[in-house]
Amino acid sequence: MDNQQKTIQNFVNDRNHSKKLFTAGPASLLPENLTGLRPCFGRGDEDYSQVEESVLMHLKKMTGHTHIARLQGSASLALEIMSLNFLYGDVLVVQTGYYSDRMFWLAESAERRIKQIRQVDTIHWQELDKTAGNYDWIIACSTETSCGLKIEIPELRKTADRIGAKLMLDATASVGLENGHENADVISYSSCKGLFGITGACFIAFNHMPNHEIDSFYLNLATHLEKRMTGPYHSIASLADVLPKHNEIRQSVIINKKKFLTDYKKWVQYPDNNQPLLCTYVDCEISTNDSSVILYKPRSDLRGSVVCHLGEAHLAENAKGMIQNVLEVKEVQK
Prior knowledge:
The protein is of the alpha/beta class. The protein contains 9 helices and 15 strands. It has 2 domains: 3-29 and 246-330, Aspartate Aminotransferase, domain 1 (Alpha-Beta Complex), CATH 3.90.1150; 34-243, Type I PLP-dependent aspartate aminotransferase-like (Major domain) (Aspartate Aminotransferase, domain 2), CATH 3.40.640.
């Protein structure tokens, strides 16, 4: 390790020591987030063009999709553009929590604005086997961080096939961590969370172009595919050195998840097949006396706590889950 790398590593170690994250993303700071950064521009910069092409090719390979659009903004922006550009006909939203409710709102908004959607229905995730009728699209949030729930993507694909629908996923909390994204026709996600990049970029990945265009410069998918505006250059650069090491970094999440499931087995609420790698819902109140700890506050009125497992990403496969030693448990009232 040369002196520059040592300096970066020391800086990252200091930053991660000063703040312990149990939140849903971004993860702890990685040296690779910084080493990938560079001056860059979207036109006439061959160095950056090569970086972006490499990152996008890696992401397409990771999820199994043919096309990808990169946008500057949060996953919410990608979700809205995805909904407006792809949805049509009869739409079914799988209810899992706050983030599926957001997808329902976006689908209804698309129904009002573009007149391509006939109706938007919902079904609870525990009743998927009861789904009947014919639909053009089924929408799901395969990892619902608001309640620490995972639905297997292949199971969603089976439901979509049974009702003759295409599958749209909010993959924000599952991409890079869970398997099966190739089963979805279109997905969207952000640069942080399970990709381990910094915030600021979002992506829409798909296999076939949408059937209609949106009368909006910013919300038209083609605008972003054709790169008609400033892109998320530095957020993409923050992934350039991360993605080649992604499997090793991902091991930190697996290690923390397994340790948490063991240590908090008494309070774990969902069976193994509904456990996402990103987070765990427990029927107890997680607290701490350590002022450097940032606990996750779900966007839902939830009894108990959701704990996320990205806080030792910088340790990669050397993680031990020791970060969890700062947590304390308080029983909730029945």
